[in-house]
Amino acid sequence: MLLRNLKLYKVKSGLAPVVQICRLSSSIPLEDFPVGTVSEKQVKPERKSIVPSNCRYVYPEFLPDPKMQWRNPLREKLERMDMIQRRKHIDIPEFYVGTIMAVTSSNQHAPNKATRFVGICIQRLGCGLRANFTLRNVIKHIGTEMKYQLYDPTIQKIEVLRLEKRLDDELLYLRDAPNEYSTFDENMEAEYLPEGSPIPVNTTMVKLKPRPWRARWERKNMKGLADLELPERFYKRAEELATPWEKYDLMKQYRRTIPEEEQKEIFAEVYSELHEVNVMRKKQKRKKVFIKPFKN
């Protein structure tokens, strides 16, 4: 059979690559020729994200400020890079409000040029390089609080002595509670949890001292407070000022939080480097623990 009008055609398809075919006869329409298709085996499945779902709780300072007037993508990216570099020089462990911690910071007026403070974390605020946390302890019958910038270069060491959570996001009501709820030994030894175990939740109910208080705690929805034993008029006034409909205000919640899609993008950007830092820390700890055997 003679080949007439031999030509090469490029057939393009949405799923198939460009395929070159020969037309044997001008009487045969081009549409009758088979078009190359991609088999199911050639389609690569999408990779699942390796970022853990609890990153937003372990590294909350990596999320930007939800207020739009303070947003600046370039500054936020540069801050995240600085935070990762800082974490390579100092071990910043996982902690939450309610965790008992010890912080060693530089102090030129101290005898050893360093000061160590032990206390319970009662507040954690801020984002980026402005992230901070507050520790509270009772020293010589006096309530003492220390506020630290999480990425302050004067901090030499951060230790977690007891990793746990509380029922509330803030424990500022400990200022109006008896000293026994905020007293911790300065020489307290660290309590270690098995790797992979869930974070324990301390369900201690705090009983406040008699009024006056530093805040109207009956008007705040605090789960960790015991019965306040107030007259009925205080609770009626609290009900009048309550705003239970705010939990249904989706736009208000949207303005107060970072969208989940943006959170995934941020943690996908920084998690690989954070994971490398954690692996490096674990290797260093193993080297310190390992003792090389010697022959007698």
UniProtKB/TrEMBL annotation:
Cellular localization per UniProt: Mitochondrion
Cellular compartments per GO CC: mitochondrial large ribosomal subunit
Gene3D superfamilies according to UniProt: 2.30.30.790
A biological process term (GO) from this entry: translation
Organism domain of life: Eukaryota
Major localization listed first in the record, in broad terms: mitochondrion
Gene Ontology molecular function, alphabetical: structural constituent of ribosome
Keyword field: Mitochondrion, Ribonucleoprotein, Ribosomal protein, Transit peptide
Family affiliation: Belongs to the bacterial ribosomal protein bL19 family.
Protein name: Large ribosomal subunit protein bL19m
Annotated source species: Cinara cedri
